[in-house]
Amino acid sequence: MRISLDRLTKRFGASVAVDGLSLEIGAGELVSLVGGSGCGKTTTLRVIAGFERPDAGEVRFDGRVVNDVPPRRRSVGVVFQSYALFPTMTVAENIAFGPRVARWPAPKVRARVAEMVALTHLHGLEERYANQLSGGQQQRVALARALAKSPEILLLDEPLSALDAKIRLRLRGEIRKIQQDLGITTVYVTHDQEEALSIADRIAVMRKGRIEQVGRPEEIYARPRTDFVADFIGVSNLLACRVVSARDGVVEWEGERLRIALNGGQDGERVLLSLRPEKLAVVAERAPDDGRNRLHGVLEVVTFLGPFVRVELTVHGRPLWADVPHATGAILERKKPVTLAFAPDACVVIAATGSEAD
Amino acid sequence: MDTPSGAARSSLGPPSALPASRIPIQQTWLTTDAASAAAILLLLLAFVVWPVLRVLATSLAGPAGLTLGNYADFFSSSRLLRILVNSLVVSAVSTAITVAVALVLAYSVTRSDIPGKRFVSLMSLLPLISPPFLVSLAFILLLGRNGVITQALHLDWSIYGFTGIVVSQVFTFLPQGYILLVNVLGAIDVSLEEAAENLGAGPLTTLRRVTLSLARPGLASAALIVFILCMTDFGNPILIGGRYNVLATEIYAQVIGMSNFAAGSAMSAVLIVPCLVAYLVNACWVGSQSYVTVSAGARMATRPMPPALRWTLFVLSGGVALGVALIYALIPLGSVVQLWGSDWSLSLRHYAFASSAEGAWPIGNSVKLALLSGVIGTVVALVTAYVVERKRPPGRRVIEALSLLPAALPGTVIGVGYILAFNVPPLLLTGTIWILAASVVFWKFPVAVLAGINALKQIDPAIEEAAVSLGAGSVRTFARVVIPLLTGAAFSIFVYFFINGMVTVSAVIFLIYPGFNLGSVAILNQVENGYLGAACALGTIIIVIVVGSVLLLRALVGGDRVAVLKL
Ligand SMILES: Nc1ncnc2c1ncn2[C@@H]1O[C@H](COP(=O)(O)OP(=O)(O)O)[C@@H](O)[C@H]1O
Ligand SMILES: [Mg+2]
After folding, report:
1. pTM of the entire structure?
2. Deepest of A30, B26, B57, B499, by most Cβ within 10 A of its Cβ?
3. Could you give the residue ranges of the DSSP H alpha helices within chain A?
4. Which atom of ligand 1 is nearest the CA belonging to A46?
5. pLDDT tens, A264-275?
6. Could you count the other beta carbons within 10 Å of the beta carbon of residue B491?
7. How far is B213 from chain A (nearest CA, A)?
């Protein structure tokens, strides 16, 4: 089922939780809403589920406006952030709740519960109560319960935020697998950009009730359109530059001339560049010119991050991060000069009109 | 309540690596603790356990030593058995209605968006701050022999008796049920109801299968507590009970009317049994049933509901709230008309009273008692809470259990027990204000101690540990570090004892002495003598004093730091 959100607005008193948000979600697609706390993700989800009425705009399922359809008639399954398992009921009763309320015949309910238990690997826990389950198990029950009536849309609100890192990774994979097996249209809310990048077909980065950028994970990562997106998704060095020559692709940053791949723009214009840490390399101070830009800085901190080390440098009084191999990290010394290099096409130009930082 | 900042903790670090010089401090600290724990235990033994034991001993004493004769008398008298059954029946009926009404009010306030929620909430709590039997007085004004409605309709029926007790108890104990159920419903995560709705359940299915199912332990708890309150209620039955006798009033008649302590004690023991059973069932069984919130971040919010349900809730809770408002409007009204039921002209003559022994003195005495109980009660309750919650001495469970026990004790039993226990040396207290203050403090102790314990639970123990690690002793830590953090709770507890000192009647009516009457008891006297106007005048004055002092305290120490304690 397709979901269209058309210029949705939701206010609470004077504050605007969702501000003219539009988004198309294709059938069977998993779209992740990602953004900081309070940016309106949950509210958007609740509007889709029907718990909140939008003050303006439309929600359409397969083109049909559902603004006036109450939640229980929407064929939407919701996994709540708090799971919201019924504490007075067992796992099996929780899963059976939807089918029973819909007056499915008892044998069919039983079969469906067994099916959901198998799908979410809950064997042997059917008679337990929610408070006798681990967080990960509660999460599975919540998912099984939401899917029991075969809804056409699945909504998940930060489903993994309360779990340990290891379980989070495993469940993330399981949720994605189930979603793809069922081919169910899914909206997945998270504040964790890494989770969003790994699970979603497309990501919608939200900020202050609006969508800042929508796209496939690799698009969002490689070509952030605003400084907010560049900063929020992954780690970015943001360089505020002035265009010296738009034709030759030359900009000036902190008095330093840099060659970058500009397309368009005018001389004298201010632009913001996003430079991912992994695009920066440490080179010898007198290495021969290979067409890459050079920056000279002083090493401040080296942080071990598993597969690589992240070094923080001060360049022209500004902090910059670079991700380098262990071998390189090992020979660097604090407070000693370091030379960095990056290719002209390593930078992404962020629209000069991009929203200013918070 | 001020929450402690994390700063103290982080800047001082854990008090583990302490210099050896701390050891002597540690020792004095321990002895102060032991001494305060022992002192509290002694107080509780003297003022809770001893009076109850005296009641039991007296009930078992006969001319020829130990006997069960008093109980035999009780259970062989059909009149007394009838009274026992009356008590149980009227309490059961009042409880069922009170809990049902409280549930509607609590559900309306926590879950619906009906207009006038604040009014409903305020009216649900109002009976807390008045003498418990003013409701009866109001119903007498409406439906008594000279009541407005009785006269207007030329009824030869009046409300005295079973009906009177039930309607009065429902309005009197509404606040307790309401507060309990608001807390119960408020603790239920709205997401659960949304989940049910998302899975296709309609409003009524959701209400039944999710909300009420979750609230069941809370409802049981509310029912048991209200049942105890009704069983032990003295003021309403004595005012409006007519010929429908209950145990609490019969004990009073035996002890004060006929000086028959043996029979009164046996009845007291009989009255304690259902109360204690209800108390223990609530504490042990229902307590273990309540559902721990499975998830963090329970949200409380009003939810859209079908108009039919919304309007039903609005009419029901609005009606009850207006009823309470009417009841409390009748009291001052009754105090300013010439003669209720026959001469409606306005007059202040009821405020003149026949003599100051009827008006000014009892009210003055009530204020004195309220202040004394407030000060003593606050100190003792806070120290007890501190010892129980923070110091955890060996006998802590006993101290806690004894502090909470009075919740199961009828005021009449406290009254009888105090006469029996304190009319001989070494604790010769009868005929002094101290025995009255002690009865208020220890009878009303449970709520105050629980409030203190709850307040302490909000304070990070690391703050005290920081003080101790900096060399402060136990007394100084309590005085300089803990007390300031507890000011909000302390004022609330003070207000709680103060209000009870002003309005309580069932225990103190046994303990007042010639020349020392109390305002609340004086109201009863006036009603008994047929002076409804004077009774209303006294009731009005007491309400004004209570409301005035609460508002004054709030103004002095700041808004919401003074909560009117519940229960
Ligand atoms: N029921 C509500 N009443 C008032 N304000 C709300 C309510 N729900 C959300 N808000 C506000 O709307 C904004 C967006 O909230 P939410 O959608 O929960 O954000 P997110 O899920 O992205 O953290 C926040 O500022 C929040 O305070
Ligand atoms: Mg949220």
Report:
1. 0.83
2. B499
3. 41-49, 91-101, 106-119, 135-147, 165-182, 193-199, 217-222, 227-232, 326-331
4. 17
5. 778 888 889 999
6. 21
7. 7
